[in-house]
Write a structure and sequence with these properties.
The protein is of the alpha/beta class. The chain has ten helices and six strands, in the order E-H-H-H-E-H-H-E-H-E-H-E-H-E-H-H. The strands form two sheets. It has a four-stranded parallel sheet with strand order 2-4-5-6, with helices on both faces. Strands 1-3 form a two-stranded antiparallel ribbon. It is globular, with a radius of gyration of 20 Å. It binds N1-cyclic inosine 5'-diphosphoribose (N1C).
Length: 262
């Protein structure tokens, strides 16, 4: 039996849980399964919401584990058709804009579990039944094995394991770490693609319109790092700079830019 504590939970260096976390999770689950993808209409949002909070409530927020999320993963299992997985790194907005137009393509946030958790923050405390709305562990300043980081690593791993056929990744050529071995994409996802299932990874290296400087293109050594990891894993790799279908989306915002007029 746990007693209410007299002292407030310990203060961490990261943002606290998102206000109304449980209500948002429940609402998003119903929106996704009832309105956006009725083929998942059988999902039990009540159970999903409970499995999510049970994954971290009353637990030390620096000892979160993949195991904690297993029931949640099981309840949100979803089949993504082959040739439709889209990974991204340092290009959140553009990648999601792309799959918003191409409804047949999926980033992780276009799947139920990613849609529910996108942009939220959460943690609990070993000595309490409650969520900590004051602060949560910061991955660098406090601990790596916090509930949010472990969650994204766990669901990103499953998303990559389940990918099949031709898969895509949207990379940002306007930042120095276009390919980053320490990002979720570089650290988790590429290592969990199944060589027998995934025929090719197609990288699109996109550059900001009006950006002063392009850090990297497909010919940059940093892309060779990615190419090398995939060749070792027996997965084919192609790379294209400023892939036209995505470039058009950037041009919607900047139609007068010289690169959009020709
Ligand atoms: O670390 P990243 O990008 O390379 O992660 C992106 C990569 C995508 O392909 C997704 O499938 O990993 C998956 N993913 C998410 O979908 C996601 N949504 C929100 C990983 N992380 C995700 N987040 C949060 O953003 C999470 O807190 C993580 O640390 C960042 C990733 O940002 P990034 O470095 O641009």
């Amino acid at each position: 039996l746990m007693w209410p504590r007299a002292t407030p939970p310990r203060a961490w260096n990261g943002t606290g849980s998102t206000p109304h976390f449980s209500e948002i999770v429940l609402g998003r689950c119903f929106t996704y399964t009832q309105l956006l993808r009725p083929e998942l209409g059988h999902a039990d949002c009540g159970q999903i919401g409970k499995a999510f909070t049970n994954a971290f409530l009353s637990k030390d927020p620096c000892h979160s584990s993949e195991q904690d999320y297993q029931l949640l993963l099981k309840l949100t299992s979803q089949t993504i058709p082959c040739h439709s997985s889209v990974f991204w790194s340092k290009s959140t907005q553009l990648a999601h804009l792309y799959t918003r137009v191409r409804q047949d393509m999926f980033t992780l946030e276009d799947t139920l579990i990613g849609y529910i958790a996108d942009g939220l923050n959460w943690c609990g405390d070993a000595g309490s039944y409650e969520m900590n709305y004051q602060s949560c562990p910061h991955w660098r300043k406090d601990c790596i094995n916090n509930p949010v980081s472990v969650f994204w690593d766990t669901v990103s791993k499953r998303f990559a394991e389940n990918a099949c056929g031709e898969v895509q990744v949207v990379l940002n050529g306007s930042v120095s770490n276009t390919f980053d071995k320490n990002s979720t994409f570089g650290r988790v996802e590429i290592h969990n693609l199944h060589p027998g299932k995934v025929s090719v990874l197609k990288a699109w290296v996109m550059h900001d319109i009006g950006g002063v400087y392009s850090y990297h293109t497909c010919s940059s050594p940093i892309i060779d790092d990615l190419k090398f990891i995939l060749s070792k894993r027996n997965i084919s790799f192609t790379c294209e700079d400023d892939y036209r279908p995505i470039k058009f989306l950037q041009c919607v915002k900047s139609p007068e830019d010289s690169s959009c007029r020709k």
